[in-house]
Amino acid sequence: FDFFCKKLLTNIFLCVILLSIPNLNKEQDNMKRRSTKQREIVYDALMRLYHPTAEEVYEYLRGEFPTIGRATVFRNLAVLAEEGRIVKLFFPDEVAHYDANIDGHYHFVCRRCAKIIDLSVNKRVLFPPREDFVVDAQEVNLYGHCRECCDCVQS
Q1: 25-64: per-residue pLDDT in tens?
Q2: In the chain, count of helices (H) and strands (E)?
Q3: Nearest to 103 by CA among 89, 117, 85, 91
Q4: What pLDDT, on a 0 to 100 scale, did the predictor assign at position 25?
């Protein structure tokens, strides 16, 4: 009888463990998505900065939170972008920048000083419908020279 009870308890224990594995993964996903104090600190910094890189966010936060880790900042920027709370911007030959303005807008990038300027748009560019793909996002970047750099270029 003891052997039977021990065997039954062992099997029940194993079933409980196996059944809880998907819940562990779900819990990890929830933790990743759960709003944390550090994530809100990173988000608040991004709201105060203008198109910063991850490194610029990290350097900015180190002044106020000297113990914050670079990996923490980078990871939280990735999660915020994945959640759609911020936008990760890619420009040719540049590191990624982040934008807290998630409303539809375009960007102007100065070729000389690399300044990024938001451009509001009244109407999105629409393309004729096609059967071989579906557009779910649009990004337009204009390149040239900002007002401050125009004088340098013309002289």
Answers
A1: 554 555 555 668 999 999 999 999 999 999 999 999 999 9
A2: 5, 5
A3: 85
A4: 53
| β-bridge partners, 141 | 107
Residue that has been written with the tokens 């690399």 in this structure:
114
pLDDT tens, residue by residue, 87-133: 999 888 778 999 998 888 889 999 888 899 998 877 666 667 778 88
End-to-end CA distance of the chain: 97
Rounded to the nearest 5°, which phi and psi values hold at 92? -55, 135
> Mapping DSSP to helix (H, G, I), strand (E, B) and coil, where does residue 51 land?
coil
**Sign of the C-alpha dihedral, residues 92, 96, 102, 108?**
negative
Which residue, among 85, 92, 37, has the nearest Cα to 65 in the 3D structure? Answer: 37
Residue type, 26: K
User: Cβ atoms within 10 A of the Cβ of 80, count?
Assistant: 20
